[in-house]
């Protein structure tokens, strides 16, 4: 035995269980429906309709009384979305949010269209019974055109023009009936007539005299 050297058992290493390295779970694949839709993938259009069509239909049926109208609005929403897909920005919102925004506008358009149709129907009902020789077709057409165009005007302008057109009241009489100042009546009628003129020009109406019965400056 050599001095200064201690003889003994070598220290035993502790048995430690080997711990397996745990793998981080892979993130779920990113849903690329919005990107594929924007890129023009027709399969994505079908998938978007299957996924979000019910939501758009629910939006339409909650506002429109007619189920058929709601279904038409739903279809129009997806057609408009597909044609305008380049304007969709996935970084600014979800695809469903974008589709519902288009759906709301289509619902409003449908309500406005229904209101115009109702006014035209009412105008036809109020036409006098035809004389034996029959009414002048041009006059009937003019009244229908005017009724449709009036429905597009702001409420006050439409009200003043209807009193002048349908009831044949003068500006002064309209002011008396409505309690609106005479200057305001004239202003509403002037702006309404200007709007009608622009509409006829946009719609391609042939230049010529205004339709029979439209109010003049009185």
Which helices and strands, and how do they pair?
Elements: H1 33-39, H2 42-61, H3 67-83, H4 95-126, H5 137-150, H6 155-165, H7 171-178, H8 182-202
Helix pairs in contact: 1-2, 2-3, 2-4, 3-4, 4-5, 6-8, 7-8
Strand composition percent: under 5%
Any idea what the CATH architecture of one domain is? Answer: Orthogonal Bundle
Assign the CATH class of one domain: Mainly Alpha
> Roughly what is the average pLDDT, rounded to an integer?
75
Element string (H = helix, E = strand): HHHHHHHH
**Which stretches are low in confidence, meaning pLDDT under 50 for 5 or more residues running?**
1-11, 18-30, 205-213
What global shape is seen? Answer: elongated
CATH superfamily of one domain: RNA polymerase sigma factor, region 2, helix turn helix motif
CATH topology of one domain: Rna Polymerase Sigma Factor, Chain: A
Distance between the termini: 137 Å
Count helical runs. 8
The total beta strand count reads: 0
- Level of helix content? 55-70%
Radius of gyration: 36 Å
Structural class: mainly alpha
The biggest beta sheet, please?
Answer: none
Which characteristics define this entry?
60% helix, single chain, elongated, 0% strand, 8 helices, 218 residues, mainly alpha, Arc Repressor Mutant, subunit A, disordered N terminus, Rna Polymerase Sigma Factor, Chain: A
What would you say this structure looks like, in words?
The structure is a single chain. The protein has 218 residues and is an all-alpha fold. Among the domains are: 31-122, RNA polymerase sigma factor, region 2, helix turn helix motif (Rna Polymerase Sigma Factor, Chain: A, Orthogonal Bundle), CATH 1.10.1740.10; 153-204, Arc Repressor Mutant, subunit A (Orthogonal Bundle). Helix content is 60%, strand content 0%. It has 8 helices and no strands. α1 packs across α2 and α3 (67-83) crosses α4 (95-126). The chain is elongated.
